[in-house]
Amino acid sequence: MTFHKGQTALVVFCIALVLTLYFWGKRTGNAPATDNSMPAAGMPAAMADSLPQAAKTQLNIAQLAQNMKAKLSKTGADSIAYWEKQVQTSPDAIAKARALKEIARLWEKERYVELSAYYYHLMAQADSTRNNWLEAANRQADAFQIAADSTMRMYLIENAIDAYEKTLRFDTSQTEVKVNLANCYFDGYPNMPPMVMKGVMMLREVTAKDSTNVGANLSLGRMSIMSGQFDKAVNRFQTVLRKDAANAEAYYYLGEAYAAMGQKEKAREAFENCKKLVKNPTFATQLDEYIKKL
Known about the structure:
The protein is mostly helical. It has 2 domains: 1-48 and 58-172, no CATH class; 174-294, Serine Threonine Protein Phosphatase 5, Tetratricopeptide repeat (Alpha Horseshoe), CATH 1.25.40.10. The chain has 15 helices and no strands. Helix 4 packs antiparallel against helix 5 (93-109), helix 5 (93-109) packs antiparallel against helix 6 (113-126) and helix 11 (214-226) packs parallel to helix 13. The longest helix is centred in the middle third of the chain and has 21 residues, at 150-170. The protein is globular. It starts with 8 loop residues before the first helix and ends with a helix.
């Protein structure tokens, strides 16, 4: 099991796209990335190999945190230990949640996003508010995107789903939360049709009320590519770009859809637009190589 240290949203997005180029397989979206798609950035391999590869309920994140704390500087470890004591002595739920959030922030500062996400989830459990559950959900979902190990990924996505569902209990009209939850169903269970359909129905509920919703159309477009419905995918991404002309992800997937349809010039144009918007040299180099193979 490996941990990945945090990065800016832009770099994470670039990495996600580069991974798509290399590991998505055929343009119909067959195989996802393997567990070792990304290089380890945190937990040493020897320690990782000793951990159980099991379902989330058997993944002892608290123990992982203690193991990793031993690898930190004295200052970092002492800061976390201080707030751990505050959790134990907190007089009420709000104080406990505040202490847990401090631990989450410290792990984030150390750039261990999986552990940070875990403590944000504990924060929401301690003080069950809409904002706490939403923050926990977003942190889990973000960590899932860059986690390499399959056990950790399932742990994170299951907790993200749990947290988004709890967020919706406070207000069922939260469109962005529904889109994010649907994406968790897609990304976490791509080979389980009932879960995928659950996500599709949730997104269709969103577009029934807002036909130009960017997030919903982007996700439905991705699903159309995976199912080989490339013309529908093109329509979805064009809808996104009419509303958000600077959406790099929409341009990338639009390029994928056009390439799958054999429309190479349109694919190249879409990829070039994506490259201009991302403005990342590494990504640009990888995408240039990809374009040459069209």
